[in-house]
Write a structure and sequence with these properties.
By secondary structure, the protein is α+β, with helices and mostly antiparallel strands. It is built from eight helices and ten strands.
Length: 219
């Protein structure tokens, strides 16, 4: 699989802090970026926002608005999920990329990172998605993996999809394995199954018992 760093883009050069605001406004008018990196003597100093630029004086320079720059960035060594987190946290569609010596090397575009995600086994390989829930203090990724593998399942990926003060939900994708046996094992370890599965004998048995009780009460 192509490394994420291969998606680093330099189609547009970083904006110099000495650039006039009028030219930056023209740039954003033509390019659909929410932000763009600013450099000063080849050093990254932050991102300027497209919405902010509209309110700046056109005859001033970017350097006059250093206080308004946003300092988010990714590292060349960061994995895709960490890069996605920085994107989400900063509500941006572009991400400056720095190397380990803090040198600016280019930028990621959000669509490229999403395309990278679609090529991961989590999305690309066939499998079953299970959403499980447990108290925050009790869940364990190691235990989740052990449950799946002990039932001859293959874990394709897992992530925390929801979290509150006391509960956490984990979404897992499983290839191979008998889904019903995996679900029942999760329940034995006190995980609640949030997702619905037609192979789930537990739900089938509950429905049969409910139907039987309804018939009994209606006699």
């Amino acid at each position: 699989m192509t490394p994420l760093s291969d998606y680093i883009n330099n189609d547009f050069k970083a904006i110099e802090s000495s650039e006039n605001i009028a030219k930056v406004q023209d740039f954003f008018a033509e390019i659909n970026f929410s932000h763009f990196p600013i450099i000063e003597e080849n050093i990254y100093i932050g991102c300027i926002g497209a919405d902010d630029v509209d309110n700046f004086d056109t005859d001033k320079k970017v350097a006059n608005y250093r206080y308004a720059l946003e300092g988010f960035f990714a590292r060349t060594s960061m994995i895709w999920i960490d890069v996605m987190e920085v994107f989400a946290r900063n509500h941006t569609n572009i991400m400056p990329v720095l190397d380990e010596e803090n040198r600016y090397v280019g930028y990621y575009e959000i669509n490229d990172v999403i395309n990278f995600f679609t090529e991961t086994p989590f999305l690309k390989e066939l499998g079953n998605i299970i959403i499980i829930e447990k108290p925050v203090a009790d869940y364990s990724m190691a235990q989740i993996t052990q449950i799946i593998e002990s039932n001859n399942g293959k874990l394709l990926g897992a992530f925390i999809s929801s979290s509150t003060f006391d509960k956490i939900q984990i979404t897992v994708k499983i290839g191979l394995g008998t889904i019903n046996e995996i679900l029942q094992t999760f329940r034995r370890y006190d995980y609640e199954i949030i997702s619905n599965h037609k192979e789930d004998n537990y739900l089938t048995n509950l429905k049969e018992r409910s139907d039987y009780l309804d018939k009994y009460l209606n006699i």
